[in-house]
UniProtKB/TrEMBL annotation:
Keyword terms, alphabetized: Leucine-rich repeat, Plant defense, Repeat
Gene3D superfamilies (UniProt xref): Helical domain of apoptotic protease-activating factors, P-loop containing nucleotide triphosphate hydrolases, Ribonuclease Inhibitor, Toll/interleukin-1 receptor homology (TIR) domain
InterPro entries documented for this protein: Apaf_helical, Disease_R_plants, Leu-rich_rpt, Leu-rich_rpt_3, Leu-rich_rpt_typical-subtyp, LRR_dom_sf, LRR_R13L4/SHOC2-like, NB-ARC
Protein name: TIR domain-containing protein
Sequence ranges assigned to domain TIR in this UniProt record: 21-185
Domain of life: Eukaryota
Amino acid sequence: MAAAAAASSSSSSSSINLQWKKNDAFISFRGADIRDGFLSHLYEALRRKQIRTFKDDKLERGEEISPALLQTIENSKVSIFSENYAFSPWCLDELVKILECQKTTGQIVLPVFYKVDPSDVQELTGRFGDALSQHKKKFKHRLEKVESWSLALKRTANISGWDSRIIKPETKLIEEIVNDVGKKLNNLFLSVYDEEGFVGIDSRVKKVESLLCLESKDVRMIGIWGMGGIGKTTIADKVFNRIVNKFESQYFAANVREKLEKGTPVHLRDEILCKILGGEDFHVGTPCTLHPFIKNSLQNRRVLFVLDDVDGYLHLEELVGGWNLYGPGSRIIITSRDKQVLEIVKCEKYIYEVEKLNDCESLQLFSLHAFKQTQPTNGYMRQLSERVISYTQGVPLALKVLGCSLYGKVVKEWESELEKLETIPNKEIQGILRRSYDGLDDNEKSIFLDIACFFKGEDKDRVKNILDCCGFFAESGIRNLLDKSLINIFKEKLEMHDLLEQMGKDIVCKENKKPRKHSRLWNAKDIYYVLTTDKEAESVEAISLDLSKIKNMELCPSAFEKFYKLRLLKFYNPCFKEIKLHLPKGLEFLPNELRFLYWDQYPLKSLPSKFCPENLVELHMQSSQLKQLWNEDDLCLEKLIFMDLSNSEQLIKIPDLSKFPKLEVIILRGCMSLVDFSSSSKYHSKIIDLDLRHCEKLCHFPSGIYLTNLVSLSLNGCSELAHLPSSLGELRCLEYLYLKGCKKLASLPNSICNLKSLKCLNIKYCVNLHGLPEKLGELESLENLKATGSGIKELPPSINQLKKLNYLNCDGCEGLILPPFTGLASLRELSLQRCYISEIPSNLGSLESLVYLYLSGNNFRSIPASIEKCSKLNILDLSDCMMLQYLPELPPGLAELDAENCTSVEFVSRSFIQGYMNSCLRMNLSKCINLDKSVCSELILLKLQSMGQPEEQYLNKKANATNFNWKDWLCIPGSEVPEWMMYKNDNGSSLSCFLTAPSPHSHATPFVKILFCALLAPEAANYSRKFMGVISCECRFITESGDSFKAYSRCFLGKIHHISLWYSTIHFNSKKFCIREASFQFYVGLESMRDFTFDVGVHKCGVHLMFDDNLEDDDDDRKRWSAMVFYDRAITEGLFFTPSVEYDHEQYPLQGLKEKQEFKCFDLNFSLSFLFTLVICLATASDQTEAQPTQMVFALMLIHVCLKLLSFNSSLSLHGIYN
């Protein structure tokens, strides 16, 4: 049995505990039951959802639960416990504590009964009864404790949860648990302030969410606009985290403006696409166009990404692209200080201007930082606080910084600080932030100014090393800056708000009116002036020059002799076009005080001979003209930690590595002239990263160097590298070995199997590498093996010993021989495309963790029947397996099957058909020209029949109806709409139909199932792939009351051939609605792009309808079918009826007649009754024995008119037009 609980919603009105809860979930379990099975999968699934989870499997157990563990349970937002753990007093104590938290702090308990009958827990029978009996004997002197356990078990059994005997497979059970826990966590802390101290954030987040309108399927761009420090990024971050689980791909691009200053829009776009598409070494490169494959991938995804701090609309257009790039429902959130940027990119309708905090919110936020509670401590302190609120005018950053600076100070100090604050001449935020700077000591001020002017966005640990070598106490100094909210750390990078950065630069500017007397220089004009004049510049400690902001600059050989105190020198060129800084007469001197030297495109062959770099910590000389660093060999750089000489194409050699005893990172990527590097010392314990990518003349890796701490070694693109030394096996800490494109590499040394820490081995495109070491299985930590396009002919049997291997790619390894699969328990993705494999090992089903299997372009005739045992398999690619004859039963959880161009497939198993009916499967059988057509028809109709009515939780209660657009789709061979389809058009992209009215006593239609069929014109198939990769259908329905509504359905396809079929279901919220007429318009693209769809698109189409006209039917078959449908995998859309509709009278003439009320069925019925009565009266009123000719003619004329009217009345009734 298991359970979950969500956090308390209660809080104090006067104080709040600001300690972060370390865990979102607490897992309590009986280890022997589920540790290595269900628990491990659940734990991993929670972790993937970013749900911080604690499990007590490493705690030492005793008779009593520890106070520390009790505190952990209290501090967790969610608690989860496991099956059959009633025999453990420890577990039962945890359960009692969990339920106590439910009662006292409002935690929500969500039980999971794993392989347990809930009635056994409720009634304390079975194993639970045995456990309690045992405890009564053992704790006979503490029966009250046993009674508390019994009550806890009974209480838990009464709570709604999950039963693993009902919800199968386990993957679905885990998915439901994780999704539910995630939803509950997302709904927590929605009060005016939360535990993170974000006051008033919820009201602002909701306004942004209303603009997002997640229910809409259009592609929408949202702008968040406001001044610096007002909270734009914070709001965007909160919104992102609340809705991120609703999108297939997502990315938060922080500090876009800064990134564009340091790089190009193309580089940032590549970074965003890499994160969204999950690519490896993903580089688009071209500035104007995207590859069709990338466009297609984006168009098939519902993406969410945030562009934070954008200041130029040209950059924004390059980053975002057109609206048609993204799948339906995609959302783009942009934060900017410039409203015009947002308006130019046409999101003016969806701009949210961030409001300042009101006085109440401002007081709460200020108090949280000044008093560590939500209100001031007393009346007078409240008055002082209100003075601060009035001064800051609702800017959150200013409130937070001032609150921190005043925390812990006495009243007199407050009064003094506020008086000082009031004397500031201007009321801008920078003046306020300066007050916190004034509280720093000289050491902290220097660190703050270095970060503001130089190190913002840089790696925290690297900056600490540089600052320490400058004589600053970086560890304590950075800690104090964090405490005073002057900086923050995000992903190990030093970050600082723009206002604080500007404040630091203003402080430097006010040091002196003359730039040469400033301590730090970053303005291009100032730097140009100082470097090109002969005046002293002894005050300058740091220079940071963006070379792209100058035209050309020539320096004399003695240009740096006047910079005696220069510690940091950075000449960077984000554009890397032409060399801007020239040294026509060479360079004689660089300051010996330099700790950081960064010079892009350094124009000389070596560094100055008079430069003594003994204090240098980091050396960056990318794309330089260096042939060697210096001419002397006896220089020793004892402090150097980081060296980057990448793309220095003329570099022939580097100094002896023994001269760099502290060096940790060496980047020599793209040094195409580098032939060798060596060391007079055998062991180097500090180097952790060695990057030699694309050193095209590097022939061998040194055999006499032992890099004992090396973690990453990259030799990608070293096309002349012919062998690796056996000493490679001594790199015991190596985790990543990249050998991609080493075309001359013929073998791997057997010693490589000694690398027990190796996680990733990349041998892609090593075309002369024909085998792997026989003892490959000894790489016990290996997780990723990439051999795409290599010459590998056979995988050694020992590969089955790789228990941690989760990714194996051997695409393009022609003639590959596979060993039997007897291990590989962690393998999630196996790709063997275009290997021309003739047989797949029969024990394929032993790969129990397999999720993705790619086998396209092979020569096997059958798939092992054991594949059905791969219960986690999600995607199976069999395309272009032209010798495959038969499709066996596949795993029930399979979501996508691509069997395109399997031309030999003739039939499929009955179990395969049954499995398709019970699954949510996207299946491509196009070009399977020999496949029995009756099989295709059976697949389609059984699938449609299996769709039962949705559960209440999936319905849009606010709408009149809910449209479920299924992600299932099916491509089958053929060139005609199937004969059995109810409505079809053999030449056109639209069709309409009138539905026969039900009898007066029948139920209205509450549930409609629709099958769509479309065939593209040959010229449109290619267009669809380039444009949207989507076929859509606009459905229009008219009810018996004249109301109308539209619904959209679409088929997302990466490949379009032959017949495309997909499904939708519509569920009405009331039985009063009855469809009378329907029309369908097919086109290429999305409804949001309707005005831009291709003129030549669908040229044949069909629709098949199934009505469920008895909502109250309760037979077992209906329940069984309904349980098979994965409604949570459908795209839902709320439908709203329009009471009055303008109809196309040419297309619907009868309906137009009804709307104009020119003639009604009531009038016809009355006329008929009158005429028949008249005929009878004439007949009975005549006193003649024989009818006169005139009477007979008149009577026949009346009868004729009656018959005509009767016929017309019937026609109206048939088409659903009533009084």
